[in-house]
Amino acid sequence: MLSPLCTDGEFFSNQYLAYTPPLNPHLKMFTKSDLDQIDINDFGLHRYRGLYFVTYRQDAFNSPSSEENIYISRAPKEIGDNGIRFWLAAEMSKSEKLYGPYLQEAEFRPISEEKFNALVAEQCLDLIVKPQLPLNKSGQFVGALLMYSMETDFIVDLFAEYEDEYIHFYWHTTA
Q: Is 108 left (phi over 0), alpha (psi -120 to 50) or beta?
């Protein structure tokens, strides 16, 4: 039974009164060419409905002198977003500003769910209190992108799409 507040296929679950947007299953995950279409100076890019993040600063690690940091951002998928807006908002949540060359030099390399989970687990090994892994246990995996890895820098930057949410994982060290 639909709520009288419904519009264009949107509905609220009577059981929990939680908003459930209709998702477009044919929308493909973003690519580097999508980034070229966006003005990274657009002030509105820092906003993404439902975006929240957890930060692990260097004192959260067994060895604070390693100067490691982890940022895990999540959000339910927005209608019409292929993930690019979420990724940019997540990038801004850790630095408040988008750095064009950093974004342009990202690899955008597709990876499997297993590889995504392995990279996340590897970077979380030295945390005193680890997040529950894998980060998404119940959703259907759609795809993931490796933006940066230890192969190129002291950064691991990952994006994953599940049927119901996006996840951004960022680890870096200055040591």
A: left
CA distances from 86 to 4, 12, 35, 52 (A): 30, 23, 12, 11
CA distance 22 to 103: 30
Separation of alpha carbons 42 and 38, rounded Å: 8
147/2 Cα distance (integer angstroms): 41
Sheet strand arrangement including 155-162: 52-56, 68-76, 165-173, 155-162, 141-148, 109-111
Alpha helix positions (H), 37-135: 84-95, 100-104, 113-124
Indicate yes or no: pTM above 0.90.
Answer: no
pLDDT tens-digit profile of 31-87? 998 888 888 777 778 889 999 999 999 999 999 999 999 999 999 998 888 999 999
Alpha-carbon distance values, 53 to 9, 15, 166, 170 (Å): 29, 27, 12, 11
Give the span between the Cα atoms of 111 and 13, in whole angstroms: 34
How distant, in Å, are the alpha carbons of 4, 87, 112, 120 from that of 145? 39, 11, 8, 13
Residue 50 identity: G
Structure token pair of residue 57: 């600063």
